[in-house]
Write a structure and sequence with these properties.
The chain is mainly β. It has 1 helix and 33 strands.
């Protein structure tokens, strides 16, 4: 009898956990460690109050037939009943190829209006990231902004994932139908703007900047959308990351705050200083919080800008200033994401975003001669034995040549003056770990910037 009772209790417990709901958002990011060795991190955002459904481990599938359970390695509590969890593990593939890394957790939250209504809690929560496993080294985009933005009926909802790519690859954004399993779309899905369906109920995404706009939600409740972030290198797709997240639309009148920045895009040179004022206000005088995220804040010689540490009285005004150094020269533009959120009693979470696109040339403004492209050969690339060669054919271009090797976050790892008498010179990189780096080669009035891979 005792054994039967224990079995019944265990069965009931498992059934309760299986039907408990807690997932509100998530994505998988992937980092290449060495040749075909990768590290994947599952990021989930869950309801803190859903304690019975809290997961101390999740199953990850690597796309090559291998699946395994991995323990949670960190968690933190964030605002609005949200908990951020990470699960990290490593895997080595047997061969080059395209693989989809995925995680499926039973049961989404109940009551989602645009997923299999009215039984969304019977639909699995699934996230996946597809990579091209090769020896060219790559890290999939990192998403700096947490998916906890709220919206209000008849007000514009906005969200930007704050994605950055350390190798300087190009990113583009689009909507896709959420998944319930590997490449399996959730049943009976409607895009949020199809619920209510008025002519002013419009959902869109900026394909370059990644900002989601929903203008204007008509019906309060829970909705789900998935953003597909596509990573391009040399015109080829090398990864796709799916961020799945819920949008909570609340009732009542809560006018959105707004953030004012005088520029949308700027082109700078080494030696320039980018400076502008950031103004944030709320029309009904609610407390506001202003933040700035983006790759430049994580590099050497970062911008100067003081974000709000917490909600404070409106208005907000702060100067942004960024002096451009050599280590900021990059293959693609930077995107600075500025975010404002308001909080007024029980009304909270509505946001406004402004993204500034920053292009940086490699020509110092204090040089009266515009720098031209240096005719140089860099080989082999990828570097397999720790040695790389730099060949400058034109003797005039060999005068006062300085090379620098930067990490992807802008740290100078090697600085060396080349011998101007030799056409081809060897650079010893044997102490460098496997991965991608930036190499700049400068003569008096010419420059060449390239990315190198060390295997």
């Amino acid at each position: 009898m005792k054994k039967i009772l224990t079995t019944l209790l265990l069965t009931f417990s498992l059934l309760f956990i299986a039907n408990a709901t807690h997932n509100v958002a998530g994505e998988i990011t992937v980092k290449q460690l060495n040749n075909l060795q990768y590290e994947a991190k599952i990021n989930t955002y869950t309801k803190t109050s859903s304690i019975p459904a809290d997961r101390d481990s999740l199953e990850i599938c690597w796309g090559d037939g291998m699946c395994q359970w991995i323990q949670r390695d960190s968690f933190s509590y964030i605002e609005n009943d949200r908990k951020y969890n990470t699960y990290t593990w490593q895997h080595t593939y047997a061969a080059e190829g395209t693989y989809t890394i995925s995680m499926t957790d039973p049961n989404r939250n109940g009551g989602i209006l645009n997923v299999n209504p009215p039984s969304s809690d019977n639909v699995s929560f699934h996230i996946q990231t597809t990579i091209v496993a090769s020896t060219f080294y790559n890290t999939t985009p990192v998403l700096l902004n947490v998916p906890i933005d709220f919206g209000y009926t008849n007000e514009v909802f906005q969200h930007n994932p704050g994605a950055i790519d350390w190798e300087g690859d190009s990113l583009s954004y689009e909507f896709t139908v959420p998944f319930s399993g590997l490449d399996s779309q959730v049943p009976n899905y409607s895009y949020p703007n199809q619920i209510g369906g008025g002519i002013n109920n419009i959902l869109s995404i900026d394909n370059e900047l990644g900002t989601v706009f929903w203008d204007n939600p008509e019906i309060e409740g829970q909705y789900v959308i998935t953003i597909k972030i596509i990573e391009h290198r040399n015109g080829e797709i090398i990864s796709t990351t799916h961020r799945d997240f819920e949008i909570t639309i609340l009732p009542g009148l809560n006018p959105a705050p707004f953030i004012e920045i005088p520029i949308n895009e700027v082109t700078l040179n080494v030696g320039d200083t980018l400076k502008f004022d950031v103004l944030g206000e709320d029309p009904d005088m609610a407390e506001i919080k202003v933040e700035a995220i983006g790759q430049p804040f994580l590099m050497n010689n970062p911008p100067s800008f003081t974000s709000s540490s917490d909600f404070s009285n409106t208005p907000f005004e702060e100067s942004f200033e960024w002096k451009i150094f050599d280590n900021h020269v990059y293959l693609n533009p930077y995107y600075l994401v500025f975010r404002i959120e308001d909080k007024n009693g029980n009304n909270f979470g509505i946001t406004d975003y402004h993204v500034v696109k920053v292009n940086i040339n490699d020509s110092p403004t204090n040089n009266t001669n515009t720098r031209k492209e240096l005719d140089v050969e860099v080989f082999p690339n990828p570097v397999s034995d720790g040695n790389i060669f730099i060949k400058i054919a034109d003797e005039k271009d060999r005068k006062n040549v300085l090379i620098k090797v930067f990490s992807l976050d802008g740290k100078v790892l090697l600085e060396k003056q080349l011998n101007d008498s030799n056409e081809t010179q060897l650079i010893d990189l044997q102490l460098f770990t496997s991965g991608n780096y930036f190499l700049t080669i400068k003569s008096k009035d010419k420059i060449h910037t390239t990315q190198i891979t060390i295997k």
